[in-house]
Amino acid sequence: MKSLRRLVCLGMVxxxxxxxxxxxxxxxxxxxxxxxxxxxxxxxxxxxxISATGSIRCTHTTAILTDGMLTVxxxxxxxxxxxxxSDELATLTTxxxxxxxxxxKAVPFTGVCPTTNDxxxxxxxxxxxxxxxxxxxxxxxIDFTLPLFQTLLAILEHYE
Length: 160
Fold this sequence. Notes:
alpha+beta, 6 strands, six-stranded antiparallel sheet
């Protein structure tokens, strides 16, 4: 019995050395697109027939994924889905990864948050190669002259 095991093992070694025993090819797993940018407006009151007061808090969220898909949700319902061009996606990805977010967050917001006047606050989320960066318009003063914000706002205006 030991001889038979040795013979089988020796045969497998010989076959493996000749390339006869190749591992079965693995099927690559599809990579799900990840979040690149999210812009969420929260606050203000929206009309609603289901609320006792006749209104609910408004939400408007735009998400851009790493495959270029742009999706707009209004009050939790998908309102629009479209695809960015490859140039727009490449530009945004480069800007997200090259923006100095420490500098972008350096100036605190010192005004009155618009939510106190029934308006909205805007939350920006950027997923960079180094982690997630978040800026909220009632916490930091957003510098809309930064190339990232200029490009993002132009793209959002174009697609929304």
